[in-house]
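User: Predict the structure for this protein chain, please.
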Amino acid sequence: MKPRPRLPIALTTAGSDSGGSAGIQADLHTFAALGVHGTTAITCLTAQNPRGVRAIQAATPALVRQQLEAVFAELRPGAAKTGMLFSAAIIRTVAEFFRAQPDVPLVVDPVMLATSGARLLQPSAEAALLQRLLPRATLVTPNLDEAAILAGTPLREPEDLRRAARTIHQRFGCAVLVKGGHLKTAGRDAIDIFFDGTTELLLSAPFVTGVSTHGTGCTYSAAITALLAHGCALPDAVTRAKHHITGAITFSQRAGQHFVLRHDWKNPARPRPA
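Assistant: Here is the predicted structure, written as structure tokens:
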């Protein structure tokens, strides 16, 4: 009997979305779709659906650390990501843990606000994110609002994305993917800018009209993490992840009254839309 192939392992440290579209749930969907075994350290329970966040209950920092230690003891990941961290205490715990794991690529999705406007990062936690976690990150993946905070300037034009990426890289020393999907002046394309200090990439895909999906940022960063776990170089992982999220949006379908991403859109066995 031939030995079974080993699955790459990826870790997500994030909040749970009871609606199943973002957070831990989106990350695990993405990991599975890209052929990676997903592990988790859950930072918060949330009561939410695509319309909004109703309640948040944070885990204790000690429990977050215990989850990380348990995963690394038996299922050491090839790459990891963070999403909703919520409090300064949790951020300090996560940053301290990953500082001791310098060989594991870390993708930081700096989740600050939900699409509905609910705060997913306490105001007092912003300094800990900037000072403790981002300097450890391999890549940070801010959306327009988050990039404006990290760069200290509003983003209104495509050229602003380039300037913001360079500013963020200079300030924190990590590679940057500024996501410009909601940039109104970008025309018919959803554009993102990647910059790692040497390589700059303009990632563009046709804007998918007529759908509004939840969890795109989580899925995008999870796809990058999964591809890093497979051994892809960072620029290649970002490029492939852009292709994946574009497909997931393009083939999105309705669940209840809302559109949901199709993480398995590349799977030829999945049912096609009617």
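The chain has one domain: 9-260.
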